[in-house]
């Protein structure tokens, strides 16, 4: 089959690759239809891996002799370790991540446990590539709302830093959560228009000021974004690190200052569970028109190596690999 294979840093090759075969009874071979190109793919590509690996974890696929489309939960957990028993499957001690450290979706076929494939019915099945990132945001918002309980106010002012896909999904869910009562604003360092903000009726801040936001959600994953978040948040406030910080970067604040300003820091690394996937599917199904705006360019598999090495998605959108193109 055709596959995009990552070997050394910045070397993604389109080549013939052996078709996957089942090694366990619970596995199925699915036909890949669409895959979202995530910044994680770009970071893995830049770093390289010590073995050949097919990336791609935001996967929509179909199954032989079955109608409809399925979204992959790429985190394959053991179900037995102490983390799995607490439902923290993303922290499973035996975690396999398809498209990260095991073969994923940038290929004509993928082998995955049957129960990791979640059926969904959207009028536009391509929207299925957003199920995995949205399900991570479902968890992020749950942790932000839990953190709001630490604040002195129950109607916090929230500033989301970063108007990319992560910031968009967090903002959307927070804005639609029945458990959140507050005000949301978005700050993005670029001058790019963010049309989805208007649809949500959310204000974009041009110059953020300190001592305004009770909660700052850092969604850009940039060192500057993290420094800005810690700089801006009110005393007694909450910073959520949602964008993935690059390895090797220190927290740009001293423990003394963190203590004196009484800042709580919450992170949200963990990804998809059955519960968050179900919530993500329900959100998209209820508002397909909103999520359609987040679909960017469609590219054939052959264009993926360039996409991964010259990261340039249309701002605030997902580039999608169409395996049938
Ligand atoms: Zn991703
Ligand atoms: Zn486990």
Automatic annotation (TrEMBL):
Q: Please verify whether the record's keywords include Oxidoreductase.
A: yes
Q: Which InterPro entries match?
A: ADH-like_C (IPR013149), ADH-like_N (IPR013154), GroES-like_sf (IPR011032), NAD(P)-bd_dom_sf (IPR036291), Zn_alcohol_dh (IPR050129)
Q: Can you provide one Gene Ontology molecular function annotated for this UniProt record?
A: oxidoreductase activity
Q: Which residues form the Alcohol dehydrogenase-like C-terminal domain?
A: 209-282
Record's keyword terms, sorted: Oxidoreductase
Task: Please name the Gene3D superfamilies in this protein's record.
Answer: Medium-chain alcohol dehydrogenases, catalytic domain, NAD(P)-binding Rossmann-like Domain
- Where is the signal peptide, in residue numbers? none
Protein name, UniProt field:
Threonine dehydrogenase family Zn-dependent dehydrogenase
Species of the source: Moorena producens 3L
Organism classification: Bacteria, Bacillati, Cyanobacteriota, Cyanophyceae, Coleofasciculales
């Amino acid at each position: 089959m055709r596959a995009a294979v990552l070997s050394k840093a910045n070397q993604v090759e389109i080549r013939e690759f052996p078709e996957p075969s089942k090694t366990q009874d619970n596995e199925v071979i699915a036909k890949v239809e669409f895959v979202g190109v995530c910044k994680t793919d770009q970071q893995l590509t830049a770093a390289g891996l010590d073995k050949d690996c097919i990336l791609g974890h935001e996967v929509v696929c179909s199954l032989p002799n079955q109608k409809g489309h399925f979204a992959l939960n790429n985190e394959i957990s053991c179900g037995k370790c102490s983390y799995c028993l607490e439902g923290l499957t993303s922290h499973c001690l035996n975690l396999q991540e398809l498209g990260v450290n095991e073969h994923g979706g940038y290929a004509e076929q993928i082998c995955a446990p049957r129960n990791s494939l979640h059926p969904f019915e959207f009028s536009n099945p391509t929207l299925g590539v957003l199920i995995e990132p949205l399900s991570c945001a479902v968890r992020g918002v749950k942790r932000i709302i839990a953190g709001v309980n630490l604040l002195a106010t129950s109607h916090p002012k929230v500033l989301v830093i970063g108007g990319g896909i992560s910031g968009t999904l967090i903002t959307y869910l927070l804005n639609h959560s029945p458990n959140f009562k507050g005000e949301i604003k978005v700050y993005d360092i670029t001058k790019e228009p963010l049309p989805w903000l208007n649809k949500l009726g959310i204000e974009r801040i041009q110059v953020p000021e300190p001592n305004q936001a009770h909660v700052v959600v850092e969604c850009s994953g940039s060192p500057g974004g993290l420094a800005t978040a810690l700089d801006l948040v009110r005393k007694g406030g909450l910073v959520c690190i949602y964008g993935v910080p690059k390895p090797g970067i220190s927290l740009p604040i001293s423990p003394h200052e963190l203590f004196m300003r009484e800042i709580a820091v919450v992170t949200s690394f963990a990804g998809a569970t059955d519960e968050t996937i179900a919530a993500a599917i329900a959100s998209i199904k209820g508002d397909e028109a909103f999520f359609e705006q987040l679909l960017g360019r469609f590219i054939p598999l052959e264009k993926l190596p360039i996409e991964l090495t010259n990261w340039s998605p249309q701002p605030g959108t997902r580039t999608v690999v169409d395996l049938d193109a």
